[in-house]
Amino acid sequence: MPRCRLLLLPIMILALLLPCLALPPAPDTASPAPPATTAASTAASYWLPPLQIAPTPRVRLQTESGTLELDAEEYLIGVVAAEMPASFSAEALSAQAVAARSYLLSHSADYGRPRHTEADVCIESAHCQAYLSEAELRQRWGAEYEARYAKIAAAVAQTRGLVLWYAGAIAEAPFCSACGGSSEAAAELWGGTRDYLIAAECRWCAHAPRYRQTEVLPLSEAAAALCCTESELLTMQLVAESSGGRVASLSIGGSSYSGAELRQRLKLPSAAFSWLIAGDELRLFCRGYGHGVGLCQYGADGMAAEGAHFTAILAHYYPGTQLMQLY
User: Fold this and answer.
1) Which of 299, 278, 285 is nearest to 245 (CA)?
2) Is the pTM of this model over 0.85?
3) End-to-end CA distance of the chain, in Å?
4) 171: which DSSP letter?
5) What whole-number distance in Å separates Cα of residue 56 and Cα of residue 304?
6) Burial (CB count within 10 angstroms: exposed 0-12, middle 13-18, buried 19+), residue 304
7) pLDDT, tens digit, for every residue of 206-239?
8) CB neighbour class for 241 (10 Å; exposed up to 12, middle 13-18, buried from 19)
9) Which tens digits make up the pLDDT trace of 283-295?
């Protein structure tokens, strides 16, 4: 055989073996692909992959008997159970779980600013979030405990680690029982700038027990609460209304009162009210229950009843936020 053919033979064999000798592919280090999205299935303008950070955070919870340390997801079961009826739709409960988790972690030592010196949050709904322990839930629910606990635990588990994200931080996500037809802009109630907490129309909370209420107060009692005279009450006049349709400012006898102050002094269910003085009575016609900012709980239940996914519910009440898988 000619020498050139002998030289070519090893080269041909090597060429045939090269595909088999190729190096294994490098590990896939790319971010996971975003899930398929539809208008009804996502609250985010885009999807952010998990940060792959620490395990489930711990919560420092201030109670009447001292400070407890709990697993965040375990704590959230007690919050959702305390803040929202277990009879609500699963998607409403899931939306509540994300809102409560976001509120918690936005006030945790690791991700935000704690609301207490020795604790992240407390168990008072008027200050932080309500919370019920397992023993308290067993006492409240009785024979229904197992079924109701399982339903709420499933909502928390379905949304495990999910928080609302806005402008590079966890969004504080307040919520109320029933907004009465429109949520409220946080800036008008509390000041500051929270562009995702704006007034949003809500047509889903009419089934709330406190959707409409009438409060009747003797003029003498109302005057004492407002530190004015009964005759000055006759001068009560609306000065400004908020974008959510609540009393922003009101004047009585030359003095100015905010809607939040009037609500507190007169013990009203909300700052969305009109009034009528009849004889020696002050009648106040109130709409909704609570401050009205953020998620409307009965509205969330109404949206869920129409088939809305929990992400669509969150998108409506917290516009502009994104969903972040924090852990």
Assistant:
1) 285
2) no
3) 69
4) P
5) 28
6) buried
7) 999 999 999 999 999 999 999 999 999 999 999 9
8) middle
9) 999 999 999 999 9
